[in-house]
Amino acid sequence: MKKTLLLLAGGFVLFTACNKSASNEKNLPKEEDTEVTATQRNCSSQDVLDLQLKTDPSLGQRMRDIEAFTQRIVENPGSYRLLPSGIIEIPVVFNVLYRTAAENVSLTQLQSQIDVLNEDYSGTNADRNLTSTYNTVKAADIGIRFVLDVVNRRSTTKTSWSTNDAMKKSAQGIAPTSPTTKLNIWVCNMGGGILGYAQFPGGAAATDGVVLDNNATGRTGTAAAPFNKGRTATHEVGHWLNLRHIWGDATCGNDLVGDTPTHNTSNFGCPAAGHLSTCAGTPVEMTMNYMDYTDDACMYMFSLGQRTRMLAVFASGGPRNSFAQP
To answer: Which of 116, 170, 201, 266 qualifies as a cystine partner to 293, CB 3.0-4.6 A?
Structure first.
């Protein structure tokens, strides 16, 4: 449907930090930044990537190796066991860090996030294909189910958290639980207008998982519009499963998926149906894709190509194969 898939030679996005501010900030937010009212998604991914590359100089090569492995599966998926045991069940550990009672999100709110993930990753979400655009695209049941495993909670005096992974360390936060077999999701009050961020396959186990702002978690409790339908987690878990942003983090960039249209850049809010790209061929953009930046209410699908890419991480030899074991 579009572009030639390329192996990325260098600038892999290890972390994707999704902002809820109205502009792209050059510097990463400080931990004590005041809360920014959520209005739209945005990213500080390059700044975070630079920090991770400085910390782990071998990261670039690991990412290139994972991409080469992924492309071999994309080109010949029949040669790999993408689903070693049918549906892949992923235990989820929620690590809740709170200063106020409101930040100590309820079990009901956390369970609502699990429910959203299961709906979105099975293609059974009620809002799927409510517009005429892409309403004939086959539902992409990713073949993954999420199960609430445990909830860890810790009271803290911190006003807000940044993208420096402090929430993942036992000194101030909560260290991950069994990160090679369980998806850790930290829920806390993020500073600088950040909705959440995720670690791509290839990063260190000690920081592996997803971070969510408490106001963008689930679809009840403290979840606040326009990010109150749990789609921040759907988006971030997509990164955790090796999906890129649909515009490839560049003007008319490459998201390494063959059946998504080329986007000239990210989309915000709720674009009108039939929104056209300015890139070659002016395709209709897939603004409703979970890997764009539209509001929760206006994103509702993965593509089949994204499904293959995500499942590749679970294949024998894949970076998340340990999650696919019985």
So the answer is: 266
pTM value? 0.91
- Tell me which DSSP letter residue 166 carries: G
**Rounded to 10 degrees, what is the CA torsion of 126, 242, 196, 45?**
-140
- Known catalytic residues are 236
Query: What is the torsion angle, in degrees rounded to the nearest 10, for the CA atoms of residue 259, residue 22, residue 211 and residue 236?
Result: -10
Give the C-alpha separation, 315 to 38, whole Å. 37
Other CB atoms within 10 Å distance of the CB of residue 26: 8
Q: Find how far residue 269's CA is from the centre of its chain.
A: 18
C-alpha to C-alpha distance for 245 and 202, rounded to whole angstroms: 17
Q: Are 213 and 189 in contact (CB under 8 A)?
A: yes
Using CA atoms, how far apart are residues 199 and 238, in angstroms rounded to an integer? 10
pLDDT in tens, 57-110: 899 999 999 999 999 999 987 776 665 558 999 999 999 999 999 999 999 999
Is residue 132 exposed (0-12), middle (13-18) or buried (19+ Cβ within 10 Å)? exposed
What is the C-alpha R_g of the chain?
Answer: 18
Task: Write down the residue that tokens 């059974």 correspond to.
Answer: 124
Q: Can you spell out the DSSP letters for 209-251? A: SEEEEGGGSSSSTT--TTS-SSHHHHHHHHHHTTPPPTTTTST
